[in-house]
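Section 5.1 Outputs to date
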Amino acid sequence: MTSDVKNISSLPPLTLVLGGARSGKSAYAERLVEGAGGGTYLATAEALDQEMQDRVKDHKERRGKMWLTVEEPLDLADALKKSAINNGLPVLVDCLTLWLSNIMAASRDVETEIETLISTLSGCRAPVIMVSNEVGLGIVQD
């Protein structure tokens, strides 16, 4: 996968990047944002075990200093609104699958959360790139 993004104006308002587990979808989405000069990385994962802590560390090291990282496992719409307003740079949301599972685990109303997210996305002035798993294309191995 390659990226043709040369600056922020060449990014569409909303991009969805799908792929199997560990398929490179996050790295691809990061290249889109880096091609536009950097942005905000809105992470929905919670590093609750050593494997996830290692993955978060690896992702942060790979991204480097051109990124502002915001970690928000539940209140995605609020974090997105603040990120898109504060600097006008692209926002990468990684990932919707984890966010949705966090919402369900917290016993929140899924439909309301999704409607709030959609409403927030429609008002974003900055480009948003969202990463999600293509269910059925791979699972995390034991």
